[in-house]
Design goal:
Elements lengths: L2 H5 L3 H24 L6 H24 L3
Length: 67
């Protein structure tokens, strides 16, 4: 997910996507430990997406607090 796409979402939608991504990352981690993962590179992309979402979420909450 690109930063531009994330910025178009509301705070609630970002939170929902963040939660889903964290759950998917957990599931992929379990699959990787068991040796059953089909797309190991997906973990790398999920981590970057999560970081992007957290950064944009902080930007939004910072603006709403008047900073």
């Amino acid at each position: 997910m690109k930063a531009k796409e994330i910025r178009e979402l509301t705070e609630e939608e970002i939170e929902k996507k963040l939660s889903e991504s964290k759950q998917e990352l957990f599931n992929l981690g379990v699959q990787a430990k068991l040796g059953q993962i089909e797309k190991p590179d997906r973990i790398k992309y999920l981590k970057k997406d999560i970081a992007r979402m957290l950064t944009i979420k902080k930007e939004i909450t910072g603006k709403s607090k008047g900073n």
